[in-house]
Amino acid sequence: MMNKKIVICVATLVGIMLGAGCGFSAQKELTVWGWDFRATKDIAPQVKQFEALHPEVKIKTINIAPEDLHHKVMMAYLSGTGAPDVTFEVDTNARKYYGTNTIYTFDDVIPNFRDIFVKAISYRWTYEDHLWGVPYDMGTFLIFYRKDIFDEAGIEFPGDWQEFVEVGKKITIPGKRYMVAWDGGKVAPLVQSRGGKITNIKNEVLFNNPITADICQYLVDMVHKHKIAEYTNLYNVAAWVKIKEDRWATIPAWYWYQSYALKDMAYKPELVGKWRIARMLPWKKGDPPTGAGFTCGGIWLVSTQTKYPKLAKEFAASLGTKEAQVSQATRRGILPVNILALQELSRWQDPFFGGQKPYKIALEEMKDCPTMEFGSKYPVIDPELTVAVDAMMYEDVPVKKALDDAEKRAKEELR
């Protein structure tokens, strides 16, 4: 009898210790890598919900600087050790892992992914008809403009890129204000909007074509001939100052620029309600509506090194639901890829943009967005196009020569 009591007492004590996590904890830990805010702030509600649903699981989120994250993920995946259970990556970098044994597919967890996420850019997270990660956001190309500046000048916002130049001549004030601010990274979306190609799924270098040349010449002329544009960095302290000082009447940029720059880094209370959003303009009058979504987006990957693949995939999948992406959008202003989330958000009116519906505008543009694909070597190919545009702008290199040189460099790097 005494032995039975001892056994019962020991069992009870062990049970108490297990429940309290005292030395005998059987808790499963999932490590999540992300960069900046994305590892902790954006997904905090989903972490809390998942831990409540799975009391045996503890999710540990770790912030890593973007450049370090890319390197750490690559080294961990290729070496076969040290990878987190779940990691955030940019889809242009993640693509090199598709079709390999470094990450899991999500076909079994999200079998209807083709109906859940935006189809126009599904090539970013699929390969050989498999889903290789859970998409986080995308970057529809829009034009942010100061309506008050146009109103004061008594001028309507232009309806196409040719009219844009003529209007720009009236809006620009030499030494004080430019119609528009540009950088080399904005060539690709313009090419896409006209149905052109930069590269493809086979990693071919395709940017040296008549459409790209035409667009590059257009941009060069805006800067050097018409003098209505400033070619500059749009993502540094100097840019924030220029935005606050009304230096630029329009800023063509990706959707996330409004939350990152206009509402945060370059925020100025006096400008609330004065900004507006316009869709990608047709190239010339009479052209059909168009759009561009050729930019990187975020994606959540699950490593095959995880001890808990089922749990890790379930957690990652939870970040792509309608509820999760609406939450992430309202917390940080991302442009979700979940179609139902976009439809719900499209009803929201943003006071910052004078009551416009940003998500509705972005959703409409995505429907008219020409398809543009890229392979795993996009991070090698696209930067060379930007270098070419820099040479045109800063060194007066002729458009054709700059594109020829860029094509040659890109092909050499791909060998």
Strand arrangement across the biggest beta sheet: 2-1-3-12-6
Give the overall silhouette: globular
**CATH superfamily heading of the largest domain:** Periplasmic binding protein-like II
- Gap from first CA to last CA: 79 Å
Given as residue ranges, the uncertain stretches (5+ residues, pLDDT < 50) are: 4-24
Estimated radius of gyration: 25 Å
The biggest beta sheet, please? 5 strands, mixed
* Helical content (DSSP H or I, runs of 4+): 40-55%
Label the structural class. alpha/beta
The quaternary state of the protein chains shown equals single chain
CATH topology of the largest domain: D-Maltodextrin-Binding Protein, domain 2
Order of helices and strands: HEHEHEHHEEEEHHEHHEHEHEEHHHHHH
Number of helices: 17
Domain tally: 2
Describe the structure in your own words.
The chain is of the alpha/beta class. It folds into two domains: 26-138 and 295-345, D-Maltodextrin-Binding Protein, domain 2 (3-Layer(aba) Sandwich); 141-292 and 359-414, Periplasmic binding protein-like II (D-Maltodextrin-Binding Protein, domain 2), CATH 3.40.190.10. The protein is 44% helix and 13% strand. It contains 17 helices and twelve strands. A five-stranded mixed beta sheet has the order 2-1-3-12-6. Helix 13 crosses helix 14 (339-345). Residues 4-24 have low confidence and may be disordered.
